[in-house]
Amino acid sequence: MALKIETPLTVNAYINGEIVEAQDHAPRENPAKPDETAGYWPKNTVGEAKQAIDSADEAFKSWKHSEMKDRIERMQKGIQKIKDNQDDLAKLLSKEHGKPIYDAQGELTVSLMFMEYAVENAERVYKEEVNEDERGKNILRHDPIGVVSAISPWNYPLALSTEKIAPALLAGNTMVMKPSPMAPLTVTLVTQMVAEEFPDGVLNIVNGDADIGIELTSNDKVRKIAFTGGTNTGRHIMKAAADTIKNVTLELGGNDPAIFLDDFDVNDEAAMRRVVISNFLTGGQICMIAKRMYVHESIYDQFVEKYMEAAEKWLRIGDPTLEETTVGPVNNKAQLEFVQELIEDSRQNGYDIREVGNVADEEFFNNGYFMYPTVVLGADYDARIVAEEQFGPAVAILKFKDDDHAVELANDSELGLTSSVWGEEAHAIEIAKRIEAGVTMVNTAAIQGLDIRYPFGGVKQSGIGREYGEEGMLEYVDSHSINIPKTKDLPHIPQ
């Protein structure tokens, strides 16, 4: 059933099966037109967050015993509601986030893809396993954990919310979702749409600032935290979870390296287009964007030439609602200023700064949170533009001498989310195995190389646990082993 989704849209908390009208709402601006309001989100109180947690805790008592068939049917109804409203949801997401309409549609596709994967595989993944041999019998159960607090970021808000909702509820957990204030509207609306298909209290949503996040991560009734966001926030969440030893899944920041080997074909136009997209999709505001580019010195000059040509062709900056636009504004003013600060630092250090892309409407561009996609050449390996995650439309291209040097540079980071290696496939795979990352892609990068059938997550300070795939689904259960040995006694114990 299609809903009527118009902006500015006002959303509210959904707690224990009811819409809870907030006393105070905050505006969410349209980053392409900051004077325009995309909608209003509720500034929920800590008391309302506690109410949502209490409702989820009470609902868990019965939901954990529900039949898998019932869980699947309910989730399928929620998925269908998203499909029925897919176009309007994409428009809303584009308006509140700033991502171009094709990108918003792509995020809806990724969201639905994993929700359907979870539905199709839930019975198999969460099935009780029985093993028996001459030594005895074991029953391995996958028990739901309890109340899950889910906190999603602003950069890929819907996909990074639904990837938590689907496996958590299918496993028999209950949940309280909190979206980012920088992209709250679509997540709140979709969460409510899904929640309406489940018993009261199984899925709840609240909005707010840090005080709400603190309650969701420290409340004694919360048994698991699923968080996607920055590494610094992840550290605070781990501290909050420590007092009650909560189960945590943390998908944190990444400063993702891309290595271009000496056998990479710089004349492959399709590959070079993929490289540009891997840097500037969603305006570079994705955790798995290629953010540090290391190119073998023997192909460096030609690589830069062909890269700039490809960038000029693909980068069309402007109104996110237009189909021809490939890059929209930065999501918020603070992030725009941070990226500009990195570029200014590069300029002060004498690096070669090159703006790329085409702007159709300069006046529109100047009135929003826009900036030209920027390539930095000649930077030092420890420059801020290299060492810090930009999370915006800027990237540095650097030289390396040989394979060992490339691996050393790629691994020189406290982060290790994704990476990519480009070149002759066998050679690239050999190098990929040496990279310290949770995911490494070959001859592609970013969303282009994502496969939701396999686990995704980081190493080092890029996180704990995995999302997507069977491994991601198992993050929402506790293994419970029931042993029935044939020999009940230990043979060496004296009578």
Counting DSSP E segments of at least 2 residues, the number of strands comes to: 25
Class inferred from helices and paired strands: alpha/beta
CATH class of the largest domain: Alpha Beta
Q: What is the CATH superfamily classification of the largest domain?
A: Aldehyde Dehydrogenase, Chain A, domain 1
The CATH architecture of the largest domain: 3-Layer(aba) Sandwich
| Helix run count | 16
Q: What average pLDDT do the residues reach? A: 97
For the largest beta-sheet, the strand count, sense and barrel status come to: 7 strands, mixed
CATH fold field value of the largest domain: Aldehyde Dehydrogenase, Chain A, domain 1
Overall form: globular
Q: N-to-C terminal Cα separation, in Å? A: 71 Å
Q: Flag low-confidence runs.
A: none
Portion in strands: 15-25%
Q: What number of domains?
A: 2
Radius of gyration: 24 Å
Placed side by side, the strands forming the largest sheet appear as: 16-18-19-14-13-21-22
**Can you give the helix content as a percent range?**
25-40%
Family: Belongs to the aldehyde dehydrogenase family.
Pfam families: Aldedh (PF00171)
Keywords: NAD, Oxidoreductase
Domain Aldehyde dehydrogenase: 24-480
